[in-house]
Amino acid sequence: MFLRRKPTSVRTDEELVTILRGGHQSALGELWDRYAQLLFGVCMKYLKDTDRSKDLVTELFTDLPALLSKHAVERFRPWVHTVMRNRCLLVLRGERRTDHVDEQALADQALTEDDALLRERTLVQLEEAIEKLNPDQRTCIRYFHLERHSYQRTAELTGLSMDQVRSHLQNGRRNLRLILLHHAHQNEH
Asked: What is the pLDDT of residues 18-53, one digit of tens each?
C-alpha cells in the first residue's frame, strides 16, 4: 500500500523521536517505514475508505514534527496509534454533523464507535503488556502473532531453534494473560 524501505536502523522509536525533535528529517522516514502501514490499517478500520485513509496517514506524518515538539511522548507506538484513532473519530464526527442521518443510524454508529474504542483500549493494553515481556518472548510474540511469520521464519529471524521459539511463544502468551489479568484486577479496585 505505502512504499516502504527495508529497516535500516536499529534505533528505538523513542530515539528516532529525539532525533526528529532535533530537526533531522531522516528520522521521519524511518518512523514512516515502521508505522505508515499500521496507521493505514487503523484508518481503514474506522473510515473504510482507502483514499481518505491514505490522506489521513500522510497528514499525520506531515504534522508529526510539530506534534512531537508540543507533546512529551514516552512511548511512541501507543501514542501515535491513539493520535491516529482520534483523527479518524474527528472525521467521523464531522460527517455526522453534515449528513442527514436518521436517529437509529446515529445510535448504531455510536455503538460501533464504542465497540471500536473498547477494542482500541484493549489493543493499547496488549501493546503495553507485550513491552513487559522478556526480550525473547517479546520478539517471538511480535514476529509470530503481530507480523504473522511462521514458526520457521520466526526461528530464522531470531536465531533461536524451533523448540525455543515454541517455548518463548507459550511462555509469552501465558505471561501476557497474567499481565492483562493483573491490569484488569487493578482497574477494579
From this structure: 988 888 888 888 999 889 999 999 999 989 989 999
What's the CA gap between 52 and 180, in Å, rounded?
Answer: 34
pLDDT, tens digit, for every residue of 122-140?
A: 667 778 888 899 999 999 9
Is 146 found in the same domain as 127?
no
* Predicted model pTM: 0.50
Q: What are phi and psi of 159, to 5 degrees?
A: 80, 10
Is 34 in the same domain as 63?
yes
| CATH (domain of 125) | 1.10.1740.10
167 neighbors 139 (Cβ within 8 angstroms): no
- The CATH number of the domain holding residue 144 is 1.10.10
The cell 501507543 sits on which residue? Answer: 78
Closest CA to 93 of 106, 102, 81, 108: 106
**Same-domain status, 39 and 93:** yes
